[in-house]
Write a structure and sequence with these properties.
Pfam families: YndJ. This is YndJ family protein. The chain crosses the membrane at residues 6-25, 55-74, 86-106, 118-141, 153-171, 177-198, 210-231, 243-263. The protein is mostly helical. The protein has a single domain (3-272), classed as Cytochrome C Oxidase, Chain A (Up-down Bundle), CATH 1.20.210. The protein is built from nine helices and no strands. It has helices at residues 3-22, 27-46, 53-78, 85-109, 118-145, 149-171, 173-196, 205-234, 241-272. The protein is globular, with a radius of gyration of 18 Å. It starts with a helix and ends in a 9-residue tail after the last helix.
């Protein structure tokens, strides 16, 4: 696993997942979030160990946490009367880290999984932390804030696109391209709704900058994802996986996921403790 990919995955494990769980406002998830370092720290350590028994054991610790998170999804679903679009996106966010964890355990043990090489497995880990967990979570939060047709479309298309991309791993490049189209459309809708929400951030320039950055970055990173999937399906020239990790992957991790969650954390704190009149953050 390359240094860049390892750093991106560490950000997902140690920062993005617990920060995202804190935004869901679910007491049961708060308990998992408090325990999360017990799983995430060994998972992060596994990234830097040589492939083998020690790395696999550390990765399995992370898999336990991811499975606990996924197991909460059916319990949350059982408490819900019908699944609204925002809830469907949030449920998807709870499940996707387990896909990343499965790929991580296989990659750290040095074994191919379902015919996928170690390189693809290594890239699957960040993909399902950011295009899976972070994307679905933010789409659900956006839909909570704007439950109109566009918000509901974003909350449904992002999980559906993520599922299609996963199916495309097994079916072929054209299915993966369809998933990329659906996911890109959904994420661009998230970007549009985020941009439209900027006035709601009031005079807090930091929050507005974080929201604007997350929206702008999505336009570029998802265009890269679309170009890569199109090239894989048609044979047209397209970026290499190394280039995609350095652009699409890093942009989604820092520019989209981290900025989007930081902004929503600030908005939540402002709602709980309003700033004094005339003061900006």
């Amino acid at each position: 696993m390359s240094v860049l990919v390892g750093l991106i995955v560490m950000l997902g494990m140690l920062v993005i997942v617990p920060m995202g769980l804190g935004l869901v406002a679910d007491p049961a998830l708060d308990r998992i979030r408090r325990l999360w370092p017990l799983f995430a720290v060994p998972g992060a350590v596994s990234l830097w160990l040589p492939r083998g028994g020690a790395a696999t054991a550390a990765a399995l610790c992370y898999a336990v946490g991811a499975l606990l998170l996924a197991a909460h999804a059916p319990r949350r679903l059982a408490r819900t009367r019908g699944v609204r679009p925002a809830e469907a996106a949030l449920l998807t966010a709870l499940v996707t880290p387990s896909v990343a964890a499965l790929a991580l355990v296989a990659e750290r043990s040095g074994h191919e999984l379902f015919g996928f090489g170690l390189g693809i497995l290594a890239l699957t880990v960040p993909h399902f932390h950011f295009a899976g967990f972070a994307a679905a979570l933010v789409a659900g939060l956006v839909c909570r804030a704007d439950d109109g047709p566009a918000g509901r479309f974003a909350a449904l298309s992002v999980p559906f696109g993520t599922l299609l991309v996963l199916v495309g791993y097994f079916v072929g490049n054209w299915a993966e391209l369809c998933g990329a189209v659906v996911l890109t459309t959904g994420m661009w809708t998230v970007a549009l709704l985020t941009w439209r929400s900027l006035p709601a951030a009031g005079h807090d320039r930091t929050t507005r900058a974080l929201l604007a950055t997350s929206a702008a970055v999505l336009v570029v990173t998802m265009l890269l994802a679309l170009s890569w999937a199109l090239g894989e399906a048609t044979g047209l020239p397209h970026p290499s996986l190394t280039w995609m990790a350095a652009t699409h992957g890093l942009g989604n991790a820092l520019g989209f996921a981290l900025c989007a969650l930081l902004a929503r954390l600030r908005l939540r704190r402002q709602a709980l403790v309003p700033l004094p009149e005339g003061r900006t953050a």
